[in-house]
Amino acid sequence: MRISSKEDQFYLQAKGNRWLRYFAIFNRIVLAAGFFPAGMVKITGERFAAGLSVNHPMGHYLEALHTTGYYYTFIGIMQVAAAILLLIPRTVILGALLYFPIILNICILSFAVRFEGSIFTSPLMVLADLYLLLWNYDKLKYLLPFNHAALPGPVQKQESLSNKFPVTFFLSVAATVIIFVLVIPKLFDIMPRNSLRDCNTQFKGTNRTQAGANFCDCIHNQGEPLDKCLDKYYQAPDDSIKAH
Question: What is the value of pTM for the model shown?
Answer without folding.
Answer: 0.87
